[in-house]
Amino acid sequence: MRYKEEEEDNNKQTTKMGISDAIAKVMCCKPFNEPSSIRVIGCVIGVVGSLLIYGVLQERIMSQPYTDNGKEEFFSYSVFLVLSNRVLGCLMAGLILAATKGNVTPVAGLHRYAVVSLSNVIATTCQYEALKYLSFPVQTLGKCAKMIPVMIWGFLINQKRYGVSDVGIAIAVTAGGTIFGLYGDESTLTSKASKGANVSETSEYGILLMLGYLFFDGFTSTFQDKMFVGYKMETYNQMLWVNFCSAFISVFYLVSDGSFEDAIAFIQRHPMITGDILILSIAAMLGQLCILYTIKEFGALLFATIMTTRQFLSILLSCIVFMHMLSPMQWVGTVLVFGSLYYKSFAKAGSSKKIVDEEKEPLITNSGENSGKA
């Protein structure tokens, strides 16, 4: 009887508890009260949130028209976007180093930073330019194939060997992207900016740009490790000087090409794009900081899983916002790509503790996804 009375008292107390009290009680239990769990949730929100915004604005700026007195005009100055992103990233890295009393002087020779920066600028420009000809889902799936050139460069530069599973995953990703391209129509494969042009020529040029992105992005990722080996360099020191050199290269190109003044004139004609470019750069910078923190604190395994989820959500969001109606077979190709990437992440998660510990070392990759470029 005593136990029954206690049970009834507990039930009465539970009934008296409000919804907010019940939620608070649950949130005080594991795993919600674990500091690491809260930080993981913060990393997921930071990376996914900032790069989703980055992806939407990237497509908005490069593939959607800006209207001036009823006349539509497309923004076509990709290097200007690169410059904006790199300047903000450079300023943020400098502020962090100043606040933490870190080393702001170049640790390695400037030529080392410049080589990585040049490759990075070319890769990012190809990524933006591709959106003039290809839809965002195509571009995103194309970027998922970056593991192939990374493997090739890793073998050529670092003599790195890859297992059968790595090759199989690369083939599956390529197959998924191929299915997506074969079963799509003009509305799901090409950009609105290329509307009215020859679909075949447009697709071929867009694919060439994506191949250029994959080539230089893979080179940047691999060659960066080679260039900076042996240097005891803070993450933000590398971020500062790579971004600085990238900004310098971008300015040099814009001024020598005469497109800097044209980009400013476009902004003056369409003031609305100012906010889009600013938010795009802020999202890219915040994404990069969240990425660096995630890799440093939790390793590359968690980061890879978060990024795979973010890429898939970016495609869904793009389809909703910009009305890309994918066919059933295109969804099959999409699932094949991201299923392969998830398998890769979970397969690594089952590896030895030594591998996990090695991947938790701080690192920075100033190209492709790792820099906050969706």
Proportion in β-strands: under 5%
Rg from Cα:
23 Å
Shape: globular
Stretches where pLDDT falls below 50 for ≥5 residues? 1-8, 10-33, 352-374
What strand line-up does the widest sheet have?
1-2
Overall pLDDT confidence: 79
Approximately how much helix is present in the residues? over 70%
The SSE string, one letter per element, is HHHEEHHHHHHHHHHHHH
N-to-C span = 64 Å
Which structural class do you get from the secondary structure elements?
A: mainly alpha
The number of helices is 16
Sheet bearing the most strands, described?
Answer: 2 strands, antiparallel
Number of domains: 1
Number of beta strands:
2
What does this structure look like?
The chain is mainly alpha-helical and 374 residues long. It has one domain. 75% of the residues lie in helices and 2% in strands. A two-stranded antiparallel ribbon has the order 1-2. Helix 4 (78-99) packs across helix 13 (272-298), helix 5 runs antiparallel to helix 10 (199-227) and helix 8 (164-182) packs antiparallel against helix 15 (328-349). It is globular and about 50 Å long.
Topology of this protein?
Layout: H1 2-16, H2 19-27, H3 35-63, E1 66-68, E2 71-73, H4 78-99, H5 110-130, H6 136-144, H7 147-158, H8 164-182, H9 186-189, H10 199-227, H11 235-257, H12 259-269, H13 272-298, H14 300-321, H15 328-349, H16 353-359
